Each structure stands twice: as C-alpha cells, then as structure tokens.
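Lecture 7 notes: from sequence to structure.

We start with a single chain of 644 residues. Read the sequence below before looking at the structure.
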Amino acid sequence: MSMSSSIKEHPQYIALACFGAVLGSILGGVIEAVDITLGSGYSKWNLLVYAVGYYGFIGAAAGFLFGIFYRIFLSASNGYITEKNVFSISGSAMATFFLLSQYNKDISSLLGIENLNPIANFLFLSLKIIILFIALYLLFSLGYKLLGSMPRKPWLSLAGSFIVIFIISLIINSAFSKSNKKIFYADYYPELNAKLKEAPNVLFILMDTLRGDRISPAGYEINTPAVQKLADDGIYFSKTYANCNWTAPSIVSIFTSLIPSDHSKEGGYIRLPAHLPNLMDEFRNKGYYTICITSNPHLSPEKGFAKGFNEFYEVKGRTTLPSDPDGKDLRFQKKILNGFKRYLYFLNWEERMYADAQEITDRAIDWLNGNKGKRFFLYVHYMDPHIPYYEHPYDGTYGSPLHHPGGENLEEYSRLYDEEVEYADLQMGRIINYLKEKELYDSTLIVYVSDHGEELFEHYFWSHANSMFEEQIHVPLIIKSPFDKRVGVVDSGLVSLIDVAPTVVEEAGFEYPQSWQGMNVLKPGMRKSRILSQDLGIMCIRTDSLKWSYAFPEYVAERRSLKRGNEEPDPRAIYDNHQHFNLANDPLEKNNIFNTDLQHPKTDSIMNYIIGIVNEMKKQKAFTDTSVIDPKTRARLRELGYIL
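Now the structure, written as tokens:
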C-alpha cells in the first residue's frame, strides 16, 4: 500500500495529530506569553494572540508530520496507536519541546543543578524531558476525554480557526501600533498650569544618533531646512559633546544633568533613577503638562523614563505580518517571520524596528490639536538616523552596515544615513509649521539636540557605543528662546549635554536643582574648559583643541570582536588603549601623539585621572548588565545593534 493511499484511508489520524500538536504548541506559547506579560508590567497581553497564531502554526506543521508517521507504523503498533494516543502524544511532545526550549536553564537554576559535565547534563535533560512529557501526556489524555468527538470536517475547522486567529492578530497589531492610549500618568496641577501665562511652551526635540557635522548649520551639504530655520532664529552651539557614546546613559545625563559616573552611582546607567531630580519633574512641578513621544526601546516606563511625564507614548514599529511591534518577544515568533521573509522573498515585506518620523510627528500634532491652551513641555524623540537606515521614499528596503563590518558599500550607507536625516528634518518641520500657524512659534522655547553621533567608517568601524572619536560624541545643539534676542548666532564655546537641562529650566524662568552639574550656556561666559565623556571601560577628556582618552584592553578587544555572522570587522578598527590628539592640527583624529614628543606636558597626570574614573565606573558594571532588561526590550535592542 502506498503512503498516499494510507493517508487517504485514515485521515482522522492526521487530523488528531494536528489538533493535538496545535493545542500542545499553543499551551507552550501561552505559558511563555503570560510569563513575559507578568514580567513587563502586565502590558503585553496581546502576546497571547501571537502565541496562539504563530505557535499554533508550528504545531499544525509538526502535527501533519506526526500523523503521517503514525499512519506508517499503525500496522506494526499492535493496537497501541489509538486515537487518544495520537492526540495525547502529539500534544505533549510539542508542549514539552516549547516549554523546555524556553525554561530548561531556569528549571536547572531553580533546582540548583547547574554547570554539569556533558554526560551528566545530557542525562539530566533526558530526565526533565521524560518527567515533563509524562505529566503533559496525562493532561492531554484527560483533555481528549473532555473534548469528545472530533468535528466532521477537521481540516476545514483548523484552517478556518487559523484564518480567524491571524485576522485577530492583525487587528490587535494595528490597534496597539496606532493607539492613542496614554500608557503612563503622573500628577498634573491644572491650577498651576493656569498661572503660567507668561511662561513659554517648551518643545524638546531629540534626534537619535545624529552626528554634529551632518546638518546644514555645520556647513554640510544636506537638505535640512527645519534645522536651518531653528539655527537662523536661535543659537547654534557648534562644539556640543555627549557625555556618553550611546543612548541610555546619555539620555539620563540630559535629564538629570549628571555625568554617567555620578548618575550611575544611583543605579542610573540604563535606568532613570526615581529619586534624582530630572528635567521633566522640574517642569511638571511648576504646573507644565509634560508629554513624551518616543520609539526608542531604551526610553521605556520599565526603566523609569516615564517619570515626570503626564503622558508617555511608546510609538511602535510596523510589520507586514501580525507580530508584536515592540519586538519579537516570543522565542519562536521571530524565526517564523524570518522564514516567511526568506522563502517568500518576492513579497514586499515591511518590517520597521521603530516608528518613523512621520508617525512621531503625527502623534505630536494630534496631541497639540487636542490640548490647546495648556502650557506644555513636549519631548519628541526621533529614531530615523539610527541603524537600520531606510530608503526614502520608503519602499520596504533598508541597509545596515552592521551586516558589512568590513566597510563595504560605504558611500551607499552614507547616502542612506543622510536621507534619514533629511526625512526626519522634513517631518520635524511639520511641527515647526504647526506652531507658526497657531501663532505659538515665537513664544515657544525650542531645543534641538542629539544623544550621540554615529561612526561611518572614519575609524574603520560602524555605529556607536564603541569609541570616543568625534563622530561618536560630537552632537548638534540649537536653542531658540523667546527671551534671547540673539538670532542666527554660532557659538563655538564648549558645551556638553549636562548643560541642556539647566539652560532650559532657567530660560523658562525657574531655578534648577543644586545637584545638577551643568550650567545655563545662554549666559555670557558660562563655559567649562573641558568636557568628560564616559562609558564603562572608556573615558575621554576634551578641551577646545586637545583630547585624551583611555580604554581598558577588553573594551578595545570588544570593538574588534563585534562581528556579524562570519564577517570580521576591518583589522584597522582596533585602537590603542591610550590616545591623545591635537584636534587643532588633526581634527580627524588620525595621528595619536601619546608617548611622542608632541604630547601635552600634563598628559601623564590627565591619563592617571581618567584611568581612576574608569576604574570606578567598572565597579558599577551591574548597572549595564543586560540580564536586567526585559525580553521585549532585549529583542528590540538586538535588532538595533546594541546586543549581539
């Protein structure tokens, strides 16, 4: 008897195997979804739908194969392959697979049985499989009795169920992506807000990953008219430097006006500490209505960044297939999606890791339209210049130089980066135009800044968070104040991001906390002679024309080891632990003068000072331990290149 004829004679076995495998897969997926939801502040119940849809899809495929297997060996089973066994074995096998795939290490840790030798580890894993399989088999056997007879047309029922599930997933995905639901509240004081008639509204625009030299006010040939308009109407600070080379600690420095080595003492390296005075609280406590609109996974309520905001919006990315736009939380969901994209490549897939500037601007203008008359502090965070770089006009294609660490396609990636900057500027310009149309522009205090820059292979590497070269820490800063009559001014004094909050607070007419380390840079003569930029394992001091930096050997080695797949970075990407540059003669930082006759006389003492601070920061490494990041954020950070 042929295999095809055997299958046709006993379709019930295939249907039962599929049904059991689907239920087993869904059980494993739902347990995982509930676990993630409970660990993310009860905000991820939509994952239950994805668990049913995607894990059920795997179960249906596996169940079909199980059914064929059962039918082939039916004649040799001596009656042991019954309908109940087909259903129960299929279900318990899939549930066991999914649960151990997710929780095998957790079970070992819970039992205190870890670090076994390979043979003992194999035996222990086998024991876990047997125990879990037997327990689940008994559960599914009971379930089979409760389910009763199968539907008359099981294939049609299963197909219809999956169609309904995916439609529901798509609806929920759309609803969660576009919803205007406020996901965080803080106390609001309307009686104080009503008294702020003479105070300015505040628009705080942060353009993620924007280099200080890639905007038109810096003399770069790029179409950024909105930024140019702000520079023409305000003050452009041409020597502004980030206090860290990646987002989380840099944003904490902006909000708390503390350098990383100080705010991280309070647990604030990847979190915004609740007890530290921050920029948003200062405005909210004075009666301002505070709003945050962001698509950056670092700025999440789970990490404390919603503190001080009356409304906090995480605007999510977009996907063609129904999926969780916060990131591929479920362990196997991403693998299924990648399989669809790989084998159905001829379809035009849309997969954005973050919301683009149009969606962020739409949300901002929607809020402004619905809240006229309130004195507001509106924080708008654009992600567009961040990897991956999308083609504009958007056609579904993008480029990520992280996939080509050797420097291939340099001109193409540079072009895509510039297009992202131009697109974000175009969308940001819509907010500026809105304020003008509503006659709010002149009375609004506007800040335009970035959290860090981006290396575009100037030193044989890509992205950020791996050095203290100028392209990674030099950022733009423009401030347009209703109370400062200077317009079109280029200020070349040294400014760091810890200076932004004190400047904005004082310019709005209030005093800032004494614990803040920055200063109001709109006041004449208020400048530091040096700026500190820090990350764990590396630090630099920059003066007007000189720079010193030190990196621990493991930090330097990590830059070299950041490979994607089998591709190695350019061997020139590695750099010396000690670096000293004369920026007046060497603005591109190509000639390290440390330990040469050209080095500054105070280099030794400065380096000892730097190494001491770096050592202190290394002791606080727990604050950047990625194990404390929830699964949702971990997935998005991996897509954006922060986690390998």
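Residues 1-9, 176-181, 622-628 have pLDDT under 50 and may be disordered. Keep this in mind for problem set 3.
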